[in-house]
Amino acid sequence: MYPVVETFYSLQGEGAYSGTAAFFIRLAGCPVKCVYCDEARSWNMGEYPLKSSEELAAAAIAATAAKNTEVKTAIAIVTGGEPVIHNLAPLTAALQKCNIRTHLETSGTNPLTGEWDYIAFSPKRTMPPVDEYYKKSNEIKIVIETEDDFDFAEQQRILAGQYCTKLYLQPEWNNRVAVTSVIIDYIKRNPQWKLSLQIHKYLDIR
Asked: How far is 178 from 182, CA to CA, in rounded Å?
C-alpha cells in the first residue's frame, strides 16, 4: 500500500522524455525537503490515502488505454516526494504485468527497489544519494539555483562516469529568469550537458 498524493495523465515536462505522454503516480513522503521544492505538499505521508499496486496499475490502464492503441507504449512515471523511501517492487511488478513502462524520478536517497525501464536521477547536495544510482540511472538532472550548483553538477558527472551520459541542467523555477541564460552559456562551454526546461509549467498543465 502506498500513500498517494495524486495520479494524473499528462506530458512529461523534463529531461529526455520531455513532451511524452505519461501517467504520473505521485507518492507522499520525502526526507530531502528542498527549499525550492514545488511539491512540498507531498512531504507528509500521513495526509494521503493508501492505495495498492493493483489499484494504481488499474488507474494507469484506465487513463492511458483510451488514448493509446497499443498499451505497451504507455508510460507510468513514479515520482514524489521521494518515491524510493517505499518498497516499489510490488508497484513496478503490477505495472509491467499490464505492459506499462516503468519510469522513476528520484534523488536516490534510499536503495533502489523495483524493476525500471527508465530512471531519471536528480541528486541533491543536502542528502548524498546511494552510490548504485550512478550506475543504474538513464539520465542525471541537476537543478541549478545558483552558480555554485555547477560545481556540484560536475562532481555528479564524474561520479557517473561512463555509466550515465544523458546529462541535464535545469533552472530552478523560481529563479529561472536569472539562471537560464547562465545555464545556456555554461552548456555552450560544456556541451556534454543539455538543457532541461519544465515545459509543463510554461504550458500551465499538470
From this structure: 7
Q: What pLDDT does 62 receive?
A: 93
Residue with cell 555554461: 186
Domains along the chain? Answer: 2-203 (3.20.20.70)
Q: What is the pLDDT of residue 124?
A: 96
If we measure between CA atoms, which residue out of 169, 172, 173 comes closest to residue 183?
169
The three-point CA angle 60-66-70 to 5° equals 80
Residues in the chain predicted with pLDDT less than 70, given as ranges, are: 66-72
Which residue has 505497451 as its cell numbers? 72
DSSP 3-state percent helix, strand, coil across the chain (nearest 5) = 35, 25, 40
**Contact between residue 155 and residue 129 where contact means Cβ atoms under 8 Å apart:** no
Distance CA 178, CA 184 (A): 11
Residue 7: phi and psi, rounded to 5, are -130, 145
Q: How many CB atoms lie within 10 A of CB 32?
A: 20
* Matching residue, cell 523555477: 173
Q: Which residue, among 149, 130, 143, 152, has the nearest Cα to 34 in the 3D structure?
A: 143
Contacts of 34 (CB under 8 A, 6+ apart): 124, 126, 143
| Helices first, then strands: H and E counts in the chain | 6, 9
Confidence (pLDDT) at 73: 79
Cis omega before residue 80 (within 30°)? no
To the nearest 10°, the Cα dihedral for 163, 31, 2, 107? -20
